[in-house]
Amino acid sequence: MRVRRAGDAALLIETEAPHRLNAAVRGLAPPGVLDVVPGAGTLLVTARPGTDLGRLGALLDDLPLPEAYETGGEPLRVPVVYDGADLDEVASLTGLSREEVVGRHADAEYVVAYLGFSPGFGYLTGLDERLHVPRRDSPRTAVPAGSVAIAGPYGAVYPSPSPGGWRLLGRTTLRLWDPEREPPSLLQPGTRVRFEVAT
């Protein structure tokens, strides 16, 4: 773990377990901390102006991490119609049948590691290693909201229409992003997710 200053009122921590560190920092609730933002390999901790960042950094550097990061309770269940445009290609890339791809995707339990790319877009860890496939060589200019996709070690659901290069396995009618809802995103770091086969 490496702790660096990010301006006058924030620390950027490089770590191999940002979601676990996020849970530890939020659980400790150090004085002066305003927000904690996990990324792929970093955690940004913002603090009130005047907070002793040296002291805060030393505290966080020695912080024990939980074994896993879960918000508790039941996982968010996402019904999926597995008819995605890339399902056959994923089967070909992995050497699995369509049914095996669907089964492996739906059998896993996922955890939101962090949000990024677009509002409400959660990067889901827990994808079966056999389904780790690269992004498309040529991204689509438009991916519909609700598209269930994979790329590399992550799963995701596109929360709104956008361009995208992830491989599409299916679609859900569950609305993951709604600006009229509080909070607008159903996904937060640590949210557990299960995909269920819908017809």
If you had to describe this structure to a student in words, what would you say it looks like?
The chain folds into two domains: 2-61, Gyrase A, domain 2; 76-197, Cyclophilin (Beta Barrel). Helices cover 19% and strands 32% of the residues. It contains four helices and 13 strands. It has helices at residues 18-28, 53-61, 87-94, 98-107; strands spanning 2-5, 10-14, 33-38, 42-47, 76-80, 109-115, 122-125, 140-143, 147-151, 154-157, 162-164, 167-171, 192-197. The strands form four sheets. The protein has a four-stranded antiparallel β-sheet, with helices on one face. The model has no long low-confidence stretch (mean pLDDT 92).
Quick description:
The protein is 19% helix and 32% strand. It is α+β, with helices and mostly antiparallel strands. The strands form 4 sheets. Strands 1-2-4-3 form a 4-stranded antiparallel β-sheet, with helices on one face.
